[in-house]
Amino acid sequence: MKLIGARVQNYRSVEDSGEFEIGDLTCLVGKHEAGKTAVISALLGLRLTQPFEFDETID
Questions:
Q1: Cα–Cα distance for residue pair 43/37, rounded to 1 Å
Q2: Of the candidates 54, 28, 48, which has an alpha carbon nearest to the alpha carbon of residue 40?
Q3: Residue 38: its pLDDT value, please?
Q4: pTM metric for this prediction
Q5: CB-CB neighbours of 25 under 10 Å
Q6: What is the arithmetic mean of pLDDT over 24-35?
Q7: Fewer beta carbons within 10 angstroms: which end of the chain, N or C?
Q8: In 1-59, where do the E strands start and end?
């Protein structure tokens, strides 16, 4: 399975990232505290091989 696109909504500091494509090499660019790490963290929650729990108070 290959992830080709994503959209993050209502996760940490990200209200709505809008849809974006994911290629062989994808670079997230933005100002300080723009939510780049939050987007990556949300995508890590999609991994099926390792358990990941979302914390309702933080996430």
A1: 10
A2: 28
A3: 94
A4: 0.79
A5: 5
A6: 94
A7: N
A8: 5-6, 9-11, 14-16, 20-21
Is residue 22 a contact partner of residue 5, using CB atoms and an 8 Å limit?
Answer: yes
In the predicted model, what is the mean pLDDT of residues 19-28?
Answer: 94
Q: Where are the alpha helices (DSSP H) in 1-59?
A: 36-44
59 neighbors 14 (Cβ within 8 angstroms) = no
Average pLDDT over residues 20-40: 94
CA 21/CA 12 separation, integer angstroms: 21
Enter the tokens of residue 27. 């670079």
Determine contact, residues 17/7, Cβ cutoff 8 Å: yes
Task: Give Cβ neighbours of residue 30 (< 8 Å, ≥ 6 apart).
Answer: 36
In DSSP terms, 16 is beta-bridged to 9
